[in-house]
Write a structure and sequence with these properties.
- By secondary structure, this protein is mainly α.
- It is built from 5 helices and no strands.
- Helix 4 packs antiparallel against helix 5.
């Protein structure tokens, strides 16, 4: 877990409550936020946020697209979680 000093110095868009709210209310924005800031969290936190964004994204896409589009989104999300490199090349 992070120390109290680290939690207090985090920007608002990286705090747990806001990240979960973004993932639930607007999954694409939450998903992008998590992907862009994935190196700022521990692995367990990152997987929690990505999991919430993917599950809510499937429900969100069901409103607009067919069932198969949601399945494709879930597969892409799974691949991003497990294949995306942990530390980008420099």
């Amino acid at each position: 877990m992070a120390t109290n000093n680290f939690i207090q110095k985090q920007p608002w868009y990286l705090k747990k409550g806001w990240v979960i709210a973004m993932c639930v209310i607007t999954p694409p924005i939450g998903f992008i936020n998590v992907l862009l800031n994935r190196n700022r969290w521990q692995r367990e936190e990152k997987q929690l946020y990505l999991g919430i964004a993917i599950i809510m994204g499937i429900f969100w896409l069901l409103k607009f697209f067919s069932f198969w589009a949601s399945i494709i989104f879930a597969i892409v999300g799974y691949l991003v979680i497990h294949i995306w490199p942990e530390n980008p090349r420099e």
